[in-house]
# Entry
Amino acid sequence: MENNRLVEVPEFLGEIRTLKSVHLRNNFIVDLPTSLSESHRIALPGWVPFQSVRYTPSLALPHNLCLKYQCTTRQLPAFRETSFVIAYAFQNTGAATLFDVKFEEKFIHKDFCPPAASDINAIRSARESRLISAISKDAFTIDGDSKDELRGTLGELNSGETLRVEYQVLAAKPSAEDVYEPQVTLLTRTSKNESPLVLILDLPKIPVVHVRRKFSKGKEINALKGEGNYEITLFVENTKNNVLGGVNHRDHRG
# Structure
């Protein structure tokens, strides 16, 4: 791979089991920089199936980190208590081990609640051996004065290994002006004696929308050739600007 060129990577082994409907899938590779004097920000694109993302560090190391982000929703309803699942996967595509990998998310809005540490699922997998092992629940803590900081100590990430972290976020009846804005940081060391490298992930925001549903429905019956033959057409018309999801229109016959 050429330095600083981000390319699509193969799918990780297996599937994240609780993700039933994935609306977003972003894959990208980043060459970790040697300069540790500041945090390094990685920006993901908007809600698109895949798009190349370019990140140019000051220098490139033979340590490559592939990141994948998934979410089960692209917008949230206002004034309703709902939940959604987000998942992150971090794969070491380089030849050297990454040390002391840590994952952090700070929940900056009171209407979005972190999970309990015991409800966080994390696994480690290796592409060559196809072995999958669970990471202990004790690796995660919920800290901060308001219990709004999720922290995970994930250990080493050997060449070819993937770490996956998955959890559910509760939206506690947010208002229409609220936005879920993930504040996620990944920390790692390229050697045991170096200061940690801080990677700040710029992830898509999830807006809260007050959906006003209004629609009309009806049925048309048209006669066809032949006695007793006819065609029934059911229709639903969305008369508002919001998208209607999960529409199920049935004709109940007596």
